[in-house]
Amino acid sequence: MTEPTIAVLLPCYNEETAIAQTVTGFRAALPTATIYVYDNNSSDRTCEIAAAAGAVVRRERIQGKGAVVRRMFADVDADIYVMADGDATYDAAAAPGLVDRLLDEQLDMVVGSRIHEAAEAYRRGHQFGNALLTGMLAQLFGRSFTDILSGYRVFSRRYVKSFPSLSAGFEIETEISVHALELKMPIAEVEARYFARPEGSMSKLSTYGDGWRILQTIVTLYRIERPLWFFGAIGGIFALFALILGVPLVLTYLETHLVPRFPTAILITGLGLFAALNVFAGLILDTVVRGRREVRRLAYLAYPAPRRST
Predict the structure, then answer these.
(1) Of 138, 132, 117, whose CA–CA distance to 207 is shortest?
(2) 3-class DSSP state of 156
(3) Can you name the residues that pair with 189 across neighbouring β-strands?
(4) How many CB atoms lie within 10 A of CB 159?
(5) pLDDT category of residue 206 using cuts at 50, 70 and 90
(6) Cα 238–242–247 angle (5° rounding)?
(7) Shortest CA distance to 10 belongs to which of 2, 287, 24?
(8) pLDDT for 172-203, tens place per residue?
(9) pLDDT digit string, tens, across residues 110-143
(10) pLDDT (tens digit, 9 = 90+) per residue, 65-111?
(11) Which end of the chain is more exposed for a tag (fewer CB within 10 A), N or C?
């Protein structure tokens, strides 16, 4: 067996200030890796500077990080994929450790959990939002990461080629995490330093806008991946309202053998029907999701586990 091939994937949008430093850092940390910079309609000199630094530059015209990740995963062939941002905020020197962890334990994903010293590196709003969303993901899917929004990750080939990317923007990290949790892949986290952006570099994140989209993504993924629980909960709410409204009617009927409030009785019947429909919809969709999960698992198993040469 030959040494596993490594691809460094750097999605970029207007990162002329930081891209050369990022490419140089990963070139020094992983000298045998091929470094790909995927430009997402930059209006500055990101492409020229990245090419001059020695990166393979490609372009994705559909705007959004999710679209770029989808294109990178589809186009690039390697045994190990290292994904980071092109803004020089992630510690390139940590990449060999992340790769070693993945190979030594035959994992499918290693997340670089961000640790930071400078206050300007990681805004308080982002810290709170990350903690909130991480806790929600743990509650919804049973386990989670300490930093689900980290963009610094190392993947195996079988993860990348079995990942059905659907997200458009920065919520892609949440979708990546959920895919690993759903297929119960072997995963790990390794702490990695997180730096402030270089002077002159501007963040593309919106604390509230991106946070809202990530929250929507979690709810949508939960509806798709846990339909029985999702629609069962809705059915349970309808059934609870029907029960609250129905108890007085039943007690009145037992005492007088009359049903004095027909509109309420009709409403209770409707609520009961809605409750039953939601439960049955959840049962049917749960069977469909199980079939889809089996297909994804088979796609995942079509590739061997990552391992070192022998």
Answers:
(1) 132
(2) strand
(3) 111
(4) 25
(5) low
(6) 155
(7) 24
(8) 888 888 888 888 899 999 999 988 777 655 55
(9) 999 888 755 444 555 556 667 777 777 777 777 6
(10) 889 999 999 999 999 999 999 888 999 999 999 999 999 999 999 99
(11) C
Which strands sit side by side in the sheet containing 153-156, from one edge to the other? 56-59, 34-39, 6-12, 80-83, 153-156, 109-116, 187-194
**Token output for 24:** 């140089």
Contact 31, 8 (CB under 8 A): no
CA dist 218 and 145 (Å) reads 14
Q: Position 252: which residue type?
A: T
Rounded-to-integer distance, Cα 169 and Cα 2, Å: 36
To 10 degrees, what angle do helices 172-182 and 124-141 make?
A: 30
Tokens describing residue 221 = 């993924």
Cα separation, 57 vs 20, whole angstroms: 12
Mean pLDDT of the chain: 85
Q: Per this entry, what is the length of the chain?
A: 310
pTM exceeding the 0.70 threshold for the entire prediction: yes
pLDDT of residue 101: 95
Determine the Cα–Cα distance for residues 186 and 180; give it in Å rounded to an integer.
8
88, 21 Cβ separation under 8 angstroms: yes
